[in-house]
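### Sample
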Amino acid sequence: MPIPSDAQLREQADALGKRLRAVREHLVTAESCTGGWIAKSLTDIAGSSDWFDCGMVVYSYEAKQGLLGVRPQTLEEHGAVSRETAIEMVSGALVHSGASVAVAVTGIAGPGGGSEDKPVGTVWIAWKRRGGYARAQVFHFEGDREAVRRQTVGQALAGIAELLP
């Protein structure tokens, strides 16, 4: 998978913003490994207040629990980087916002923090529309910390676009 450039991410965010505006949807982001990069890429677009509701950066277990309602037992049993946590994050983002569409990301950007079963580059992304079912997908990105994060932002934006009519 090619690593998206700043220009490519901006183009992707701009196109997504136009679609969100056209269908009158509002977006919320819940981000761990990207540290707000998805929200930044979207709010770099002039007029994003028409379709961007809010973004939450939730690195710690406590933040995931307090801001998004991720259950402590989910984190204990599956860890922060898991399908279960990503789904609870995306669902919690919708509950705790006025948005109608959500994306959540949790992963290991590196250089440390990986393990044999969850190596650096492992990222779970979840998407959900209000009233619908969450969809989550695991990715195994290559490259350094920035490369993993860039690819995560690109895939997160692509997945949001797939949710829209």
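The mean pLDDT is 97. This sample (Damage-inducible protein CinA) is used throughout the tutorial notebook.
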